[in-house]
Fold each of these.
Amino acid sequence: MQCRLGCGACCIAPSISSPIPGMPDGKPAGVRCVQLDDENLCRLFGQSSRPAVCSGFKAEATICGETDQQAMATLIELENLTV
């Protein structure tokens, strides 16, 4: 499965504990990553400064569902289960 361009759910819903350029302490769950542009595309995609956790995320139908809203809901649920 390929990521849906402009979804951004994986860059908003989960917490990220590793530093992100512009967010040295990572980001809390539900907070938009500062590296998302106005079209929900990652400014760090393909760059070495992109956190490993972000580079390691792979789109999967069970996580991303069929819509951006389904992806957000699933990732929020998974985040809540891990706190």
Amino acid sequence: MTPPTARTWARRGHTPVIRVRGRSRRRISIAALTCYKPGERSRLIYRPRRDDGRREGRKSFAWTDYRDLLITAHQQLGGPIVLVWDNLNVHLAYGMRQFIARQAWLTVYQLPSYAPDLNPVEGIWSLLRRGWLSNTAFTTPEHLIQTIRHGMRKIQYRPRLIDGCLAGTGLSLTPTTS
């Protein structure tokens, strides 16, 4: 709920102060997939997850949440998926590895450790933070979720933004021969 500040202005010598109501320790997590296929428009599939505030409850995505996202992506895309993702501990969980091994439609490649510059989804987060989430003091968790969904929908309907996130990594869709 702490507002990300991008830019602001004030008279010289008067530091601007942003007051935030209802600072909360609860968190909103988002999982996203950028989907690319030569000859088709790029797509963004995402799921937000809200921390329910219970002490014993999980605050972020479990491997089962990622599994469900992959199943949804497979249904929406209607074909096999080649997944390239980072080394988040949940991605490497035993249950996730078992799930991946059982799916003929899913091939997974791991990015090298500490290589966020190779992950197009990091570009999506940057667009969201610098655009729709910047300079906003959220009043409630619902306000934050609503703004996130609005920003993600705007990105979804602009495939060139999603293409730009892939271009920003230096990776491409065309296979190279050696």
